[in-house]
Amino acid sequence: MNHVNLIGRMSSAPRIVELESGRKIAHFTLSTKEMYLDASGKTKSRSQWHQLSAWGRWVKVLEELGTVGMDLAIEGKLVTRFYSKDGAKKMRSEVEVNDLVIL
């Protein structure tokens, strides 16, 4: 099962790209924070940054409302895309948004 749930803060403004087909995709970054105890018992935090993409109605929502620092809950799936840039093959793994809630 490929299922991702994230609650975090939008750490980059959505970058909207219109494809040749006319469809739009929004790319943005979400940061999440994890709390844990270190070996001495002190509480520490660790941040992770996640690359996300959104299609369809979510592009419009992100275009109109998406701002850096906004808290979001995301439900989606992990996808890997392959593409060529400057003659080199590249790979990008990201979370594709199925549902989004502004917190």
Query: The biggest beta sheet, please?
Result: 5 strands, mixed, barrel
Number of domains: 1
- The proportion of residues forming helix, as a percent range, comes to under 10%
Strand order of the largest sheet: 1-3-4-6-5
Q: Quick one: CATH class?
A: Mainly Beta
- By secondary-structure content and strand pairing, the structural class works out as mainly beta
- Stretches where pLDDT is under 50 for at least 5 consecutive residues are none
Question: What's the end-to-end separation, in Å?
Answer: 26 Å
CATH fold node name: OB fold (Dihydrolipoamide Acetyltransferase, E2P)
For the residues shown, what is the average pLDDT? 94
Tell how many strands the DSSP assignment holds: 6
Strand content: over 45%
H/E element order: EEEEHEE
CATH superfamily: Nucleic acid-binding proteins
- Rough outline: globular
CATH architectural category: Beta Barrel
Radius of gyration: 16 Å
Number of helices: 1
Features of the shown structure:
mainly beta, OB fold (Dihydrolipoamide Acetyltransferase, E2P), 9% helix, 66% strand
